[in-house]
Amino acid sequence: MILGFGGELYAQAAAPVDTTVCDVVKKPQALNGQIVRIKGTVVAGFDEFVIKDSTDSNCGYPVNAIWLAYPAGTKGKAGPAAILTIQPARNFAGKYTAPTRTAVTLDKSKDFKQFDSLLAQKHEKGADMCLGCTRYEVTATLVGRLDSVADATLQRDASGKIVGFGGFGNMNAYPARLVLESVSDVTPKEVDYSKNDDESKGSGAMETVMSSPVDLQGAIDAAQKNADKLVAGPPKDAAEKAAAAFGKGDHSNGVYEVSGNGNEASPRDEDPGAKDSPDGVLFNCTFNLDRLQGDSLARAVIHLGEHISELRAPAPGNEAAQAYDLESDAWVVTTVSAVAGGQKYLSLPGGYLVWDSSWPPTDRNDKMADTLKDFLRKEALLSQ
Fold first, then answer.
1. What would you report as the CA-atom Rg of the chain, rounded to the nearest whole angstrom?
2. Which residue, 232, 174, 155, 183, is CA-closest to 76?
3. What is the pLDDT of residues 42-86, one digit of tens each?
């Protein structure tokens, strides 16, 4: 009887805490470190691997999603096409203590394998470039360890130097992360790209800087060539800064780029780095070469390069820019790069056509701005 009673207490203590995405986003630290259960919809986009609320994707906060991660060593297939994470360098000027977290073991059940496989499937119809587009989003019951911070905003000193940060996922912008333990009740929904596919039918071959998949250095070189093609003005200046963010490939500027799948929560990623950086911060870029090939890899380079340039040297008054503004600027520069590369169309995850060369010149800026606004709010789950 005593053993049975004690076992019941243990089972009750270990039971996951039921919550929602919006409740976590509202008070991210309330359940920090606890095992939680969430019914949500998972999106694996260009630089997103996130859980949105299954009933209301707009929670009313600057970041309306929880970053999703697999435990280290999972080797799952799903995840973001590209991701930038920020890490304190060995010579970091601020105060930083690496967190201690309880290990999570993933149940690689049949449900998990189905979940991971569905989210890894690319959208491959149509003749346009669909950057980081996946075929499905998946609603499921997710159980895992919730990691959170009170504020994911970068902290800077009076000179603008980064001296403090937290957060998870792309640009460390997410105040909460779920490290997955198990998944069940998997329900896929195919994303509707039919409008984009119809508009780009018969577009034929487009002019490209790269005609076949290349390595990362080749993509960086191509991004720089695209920037050189632009006429003088703010878009050219931004594209040149974005391409230049990667330096000469020797990592002396604190920017590191690797190929892989940025879908795991590795403890070493939260430790201080082993290398110095000019400003005490390391910018780690991961590109999934299974999802980014040819010109799309050059576009991804420009996109993450814009993030690095804005975070590292923000314009006066933009030191506290939120994720919405940073993503908006990056997508503008990415689209301008695509236009300079001769692309006729550019689509974003979720079926958003952000560039169509057949649009009347007088309408292009408005159409791009309206599409981007909808994409950031509805697909990237960001608010101003």
1. 21
2. 183
3. 999 999 999 999 888 889 999 999 999 999 999 999 999 999 999
Alpha carbons 106 and 119: distance in angstroms, whole number: 17
Residue 365 inside a domain? The answer is no
Q: Would you give the DSSP letter of residue 267? A: G
Residue 113 included in any domain: yes
Q: Is residue 118 part of a domain?
A: yes
Q: Is residue 372 part of a domain?
A: no
Bridge partner list, 137: 189
Number of H helices, E strands in the chain: 9, 15
Say how far residue 120 (Cα) sits from the centre of its chain: 15
CA distances from 234 to 215, 237, 240, 357 (A): 29, 5, 10, 21
Closest CA to 311 of 196, 207, 162: 162
Per the structure, the complete domain to which residue 62 belongs is given by: 15-78+91-190
pTM above 0.85, yes or no: yes
The one-letter code for the residue type at 221 is: D
What are the φ and ψ backbone dihedral angles of 139, each rounded to 5 degrees?
-95, 135
Report helix, strand or coil for 44: strand
Task: Determine contact, residues 282/274, Cβ cutoff 8 Å.
Answer: no
Distance (Å, rounded) from C-alpha 4 to C-alpha 270?
40
Going by C-alpha positions, the residue among 123, 150, 210, 141 that lies closest to residue 178 is 141
Q: Which residue has the tokens 């304190």?
A: 88
- The string of pLDDT tens digits covering residues 140-171 is 999 999 999 988 999 999 888 999 988 999 99
The count of structural domains within the chain is 1
Tokens representing residue 179 in the block: 């490290």
